[in-house]
Amino acid sequence: MARVTRYSKFEGELDQLDSSELMQMIQEALLGQGMNDPYDPDPNARPSMDDLFDAILEALAERGMIPEEQLMEAMQSADVHDTALGQQIRGLMDKLQQDGFIRKEFDEQDGQGGAGPSGEATFQLTDKSIDFLGYKSLRDLMGGLGRSSAGAHDTREYASGVEMSGELKNYEFGDTLNLDTTATLGNVLSKGMDNMEESDLVIRQAEYNSSAATIVLLDCSHSMILYGEDRFTPAKQVALALAHLIRTQYPGDTVKFVLFHDSAEEVPVSKLAQAQIGPYHTNTAGGLRLAQQLLKRENKDMKQIVMITDGKPSALTLPDGRIYKNAYGLDPYVLGATLREVANCRRSGIQVNTFMLARDPELVGFVRRVSEMTKGKAYFTTPQNIGQYVLMDFVTNKTKLVN
Predict the structure, then answer these.
(1) I need a labelling partner for 167 at 20 to 30 A (CA). Which of 112, 113, 260, 394 fits?
(2) Overall pTM > 0.90
(3) What's the DSSP call for residue 372?
């Protein structure tokens, strides 16, 4: 029986708050961009323990979970860390560490050797917390779709594989010998084992579940946090949800993540939640090129790229490694290089599904051209519903069959 994870509702005092409930309360802060200056983003920014303290304090206050006397003391204090409320919040932070949700880290150059004030330390989300955030995001997004679970990419085809759950058929040369003993003996007993022929063999077919390799291509250029709207946090949420969905429901599938900005790099799912907005421009060609390199290593029935972006291509990696940039309009040089990578995807049988968070006329034309070239899909969506669009597309998109 599969293990079911349940997260209980908090009804006690602060020091009795369950770590999983606390993680649920602060998940947006853990994934968000609150520490990053939208006008001068730092891709290497990492949250400190003080950032975690503030996130817990805000979450408790928003939910009215702080006793009135403690709240009054904190409001009148010069430093909330020194109050009874501050001590309880530090206790909750310690509990998150003890329960394996976060790992405190110190700068190796600070000479502290693991000691020092909490604010000088950063924290890293653990595999347990990544799994929790993926589960929670998936539950929220699938709930919005009216779904609670999803199965494998079922097809209407049958093959003689290892899962003997299909219909019976006479053996043919090349079939895997998943012998149905009862039916085979029924054919043989009447004439004797010495007279058994190949046509007497009966096998049980297996349902064929197709597999997919997916690269999630996430735009983390400057525009994803500008204009008073954080578009990157919802993109990360759906990426974590997709990773959890594939790990738990589609074990034969694979998913990897690529961030693209001035350049592009692969990021493991363990680092994805705390990834920050990067440099300013959008090197779509570089992201597509890296995604193709990663997909070449996969032996799957279908290979696809899920690209989440809000801007036009504005950067390009030159052969000598330099970055060519032009943020004004659709630069023909950048556009040409990007479409060449799209054409390479088409030749390699890679479908590109684009989820666009903006609707500029130039972008609409570019996205439609990408979709037409790779027989992919284009969705013009918003940060509020992008997760539902991505998951709905993945669940309903049946992978192509390999004969």
Answers:
(1) 394
(2) no
(3) H
